[in-house]
Amino acid sequence: MPQFSPGESKTAIAPIVAKPSGMDCEAELFLGPDDATKVGSSGRVPFVSTGATKNVNLPITLPSSPGTYHGYIDVFAEGLRFLAYKLTEDVVITSPELLLCPGWPLTIDPEHKVIAVTGVGGKKFKEVGKGFTILFGASTQGWNIPVFFPDLQYAVLTEPIRVSKLSGLSVAFRNVSIYFSIGNKGLIFFLGYLPTWSIDTMQESVTQVVCSGPPAFRGQRVYWPGIQGVEIFSDTIDVGGEYAPGWSCPGTYHVIFGWGILSEYGEWSGGERFLIPNAVECSAEVGPDW
Amino acid sequence: MIEGVNVEFIKTRGNGPERLKVEMLDPILAPSSARTAKAPITAKPAGMACQAELFLGPNPTTKSATSGMVSFTSTGASQDVNLPVTMPANGGASYHVYIDVYAGGMKFLSYIATEDVVIPGGSIGPITWS
């Protein structure tokens, strides 16, 4: 069954044979629990019959509520409905979900409404999809693991990433940036927190973030609710005190990351953030080797 | 009740008005739908046992649908004759519409509609999403 996101705009291409040729026709695609209840509709799309198969585009905005919907197509000739079809497959509207790490075990934390990645420790590079790589891991030897990309300077996402909303948590820990483009908008997808970073010129379809200096970060094992928007953490996270740069505190760390749309003026808009709790363990009081 | 719009018929045979305006069929009809045409027929002289038939087809000799012979008695003036017909079951075609009038079994009036009736049909294949 086709699965889409709530409120997504899609176009159904219907191969319609209408006879005889030359008739003024209209077609309508609608979704609903039955053929009398329209939850979403393309409206009536006009076309002229040719007597042969003709592809008719039926644009529709999908329902905003997750669920399973029947699909129907009606065809009219001068107001007379002469074709009424029901799609053989229902349309499923699903809530966005994290597809960031398809190779990792995922669980959903119903309380915090986040996607949790289970498993900690020892994970290093994890190639997760086409065109980009996400760095995860912890090492007592330090974090001298370069950000890795394919030969392209810019990583291009060929599959959409769907993320769930974040209820709020605090820790950011790594200077990994993943950048990709979706459609014609430049998006920054970053993992971790960079206290200083520069934004390269935003191009039509690509956004690049370059680390401009050695990162300094802070890690906390504290649940910190109420984080709004996409923030750049200050050097001090006012929970439990300050730490020297680098890992200096063994323990289990969460990761918070998200994506947003960054204009060339440095203004953020849109985007979402999500959490990976218990993503990293640091077992030694050794700072990273930058 | 009679439904539809006025459709004009032109005479192809016999003595009578050159044109008839028949309140009848919409130009586009559903397959197997039942409709009744009301034809203002003038048959002279009065008192004849007459019959009228409305039929659809690709030509005057092929009847895809017909009202059958509907009896009436001529009045010498225009009189409305109801001609019920069920549309062909197969959609996807257009049909000429004819009206013939008989007296004593002899056809003495023939009309053809100036506008065909269309019975739409078709199919919808598997859709794709973009």
Helix-strand layout with pairing:
The complex is a heterodimer of chains A (290) and B (130).
Chain A: E1 3-4, E2 9-19, E3 24-32, E4 40-41, E5 45-48, E6 53-61, E7 67-77, E8 80-86, E9 91-93, E10 106-109, E11 114-117, E12 125-129, E13 132-135, E14 175-182, E15 185-192, E16 197-199, E17 209-211, E18 251-262, E19 268-282
Chain B: E1 6-14, E2 19-23, E3 34-42, E4 49-57, E5 65-66, E6 70-73, E7 78-86, E8 93-103, E9 106-113, E10 117-119, E11 121-124, E12 128-129
Antiparallel strand pairs in B: 1-2, 1-9, 3-7, 4-5, 4-6, 4-8, 8-9, 8-10
Give the termini distance of chain A in whole angstroms: 48 Å
On the 0 to 100 scale, the average pLDDT of chain A is 51
Query: Approximately how much beta-strand content do the residues of chain B carry?
Result: over 45%
Taking Cα atoms only, what radius of gyration of chain A do you get, to the nearest Å? 24 Å
Count of β-strands of chain A: 19
Low-confidence stretches of chain A: 96-264, 270-290
What's the order of the H and E elements of chain A? EEEEEEEEEEEEEEEEEEE
Largest sheet of chain B: 8 strands, antiparallel
Low-confidence stretches of chain B: none
Number of separate helices of chain A: 0
Global mean pLDDT of chain B: 86
Shape of chain B: elongated
The share of residues in extended strands of chain A comes to 35-45%
Largest sheet of chain A: 7 strands, mixed
